[in-house]
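Lab notebook: predicted structure, single chain.

Context: the supervisor wants predicted structures on file for every construct in the current expression panel, including those that have not yet been purified. This is the next one on the list. No modifications to the sequence; it matches the entry in the shared construct table.
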Amino acid sequence: MKDLMFVCTGNTCRSPMAEGLAKKMIGNKKAIILSRGVSVNLEEPANMSAVKAMEKKHISIKDHKSKRFDSKEVTDNMLILTMTSRHEAFLKYHYPMLEDKIYSLLAYINMTGNVEDPYGLDQEAYDQCADQLENAIGKLMDQLD
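Prediction complete. Output recorded below exactly as produced.
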């Protein structure tokens, strides 16, 4: 099983939800699963709407603290999966030595589009984002098996 790092902007909504979902779906397989943000200045908790969306799926991310992407955390066996093509381009530009590990999550599983940021939107937007991530990570797990 590959190690996984999910990356979004602030590491308070999408990537923590993706991390929680992947940890649940991975079962007893051994892998490092992390989430990080490209624009994290202060450590913050997960967004409350993201926490609620995950609670509906019986996953707790309430103890999550945001962290900035750090290339030192990337293992030889790691896939870096971004929420958007913009995050992918940003990481490939700033970390060219990791280019072969960095993919947009949806592109990696042969889907189009991005996992758009629900930040500032209503609970329904977070729930829809969580559903999109659950579907995508389910496909990712099937692909990695």
